[in-house]
Amino acid sequence: MTTGGIRMTKRTGAFILGGLLVALLLAGVVSNFASAHPDGLDSSLRQGCTFDADDNIIGGSCPAQQSRDHELADSPLADYGVRGIDNSYLSTGLSGVLGVLLTFAIGGGLFWLVRRRPSGGATEQGTPAGQGAGPAQAAQAAGAGAGAGAGAGAGAASADAASADARN
Amino acid sequence: METLAMHISNGIINGPVAAAFAALALVALALCVARGRQDLDDRLAPMAGLVAAFIFAVQMLNFPIFTGAVSGHLLGGALAAVLVGPWVGALCVAVVLIVQSLIFGDGGVAMLGLNITNMAILGTAVAYLLIALLLRILPRTVNGLAITAFVASVVSVLVASQGFVLQYWLGGTTDVGSSLGGLAGTMAGVHLLIGIGEGLITATTVVTVAKVRPDLVYALRSLRPIPAANPAPVGGGAR
Predict the structure, then answer these.
(1) Which residue among A103, B52, B99, B197 has the highest number of C-beta atoms inside a 10 angstrom radius?
(2) Based on the number of CB atoms within 10 Å of its own CB, is A134 exposed (0-12), middle (13-18) or buried (19 or more)?
(3) TM segments (chain B) (predicted)?
(4) How many structural domains comprise chain B?
């Protein structure tokens, strides 16, 4: 963490950690007790067809008939299971844990990369003087962020963000 | 057909319509990045990562509805909108959908634009409009916040489900003809119940966060009257 976040970091960090633990528990354990029935979208698309015990369409006409395999159906984590683990509780739970960690790493990482960067902690100090010095620094930070290659979307957006910062 | 599909799978909507919505979603997400950067400071960035991870976790928890032969799960737009705001919130839901599609084989890669448009863009936008309205007219109490989160969830899930009906009308691969209205009705009925479940989960989560760390609830932060001594309503940790 850089200079800007020092004051909030500890408490916020504890909250984030606690929240992550809850998410890991939900995805790793509670997920095994989730309903296995088709969800609202899937069931709506199955209206009009009849299914056998193995969930294959045996008659009728419905949108779900056109459903094709996923491009990445062979992914090691496809269908919320870990390939190679036969125990279904372990497989589902482990895939959930990996999913939560991956989502946090990818999401949190991207958000951290494109965040608004205070130079020299001006934002965190929050004094009127600090805010007064803000616009030029903020514009600089926005430019630097785009330069760091934060992603195509962020790059396209940087000019917009910088000018909006300057208006603040 | 044993796959666990929670989002639009391949083949349901035709290629051109899916591609058009992919382009639409890309433009919308770019706008969200541009506007979201205003909100994303050192505190909101990790919070947004947590919100995405939490939505991923709760989306795995399909709860039974109706007689138990149908299930539903959280979409997350309302939860994200309350906690991290509309722009970053839409990005959170989009991150979840992208991870699910690319790593967990849930929701066709070619259908990603459709799923993002419905759940990340439409769902979050509708939720935030309602949140902004309701937090102004309802009392500033725990109950007011809970009702806001609940109503925003129900409506956002309903609108997202009708987003799919619109997409199906434009490019559905099975000719449902005059029964498109039937599909709309079925989707609305099921998703009203899913929305109620989502509303309960969202209200519980939001109220819990608001009790522990009210300063981490974006919707409360941005609508709070600004004291004269503090001229920076979105000034990061300024408090």
Answers:
(1) B52
(2) buried
(3) 44-66, 78-104, 116-138, 145-170, 190-212
(4) 1
Q: Which residues of B touch A120 (CB under 8 A)?
A: none
Contact residues for A144 (Cβ-Cβ < 8 A; gap 6+): A117
Residue B122 lies in a domain: yes
What digits encode the pLDDT tens for the residues B126-142? 999 999 999 999 998 99
> For residue B153, what is the domain's CATH number?
1.10.1760.20
Tokens of B194: 């899913």
In a domain, B1, yes or no: no
pTM: 0.82
Q: Is residue B8 part of a domain?
A: no
Tens of pLDDT, residues A149-158: 333 334 334 4
In a domain, B238, yes or no: no
> Quick one: tokens of A33?
């007790």
Q: Which two tokens stand for residue A120?
A: 């020299």
8 Å CB contact of B174 and A115: no
- Domain carrying residue B79: 15-221
Instruction: Report ipTM (2 d.p.).
Output: 0.89
Q: Which residues of A touch B95 (CB under 8 A)?
A: 103, 106-107, 110
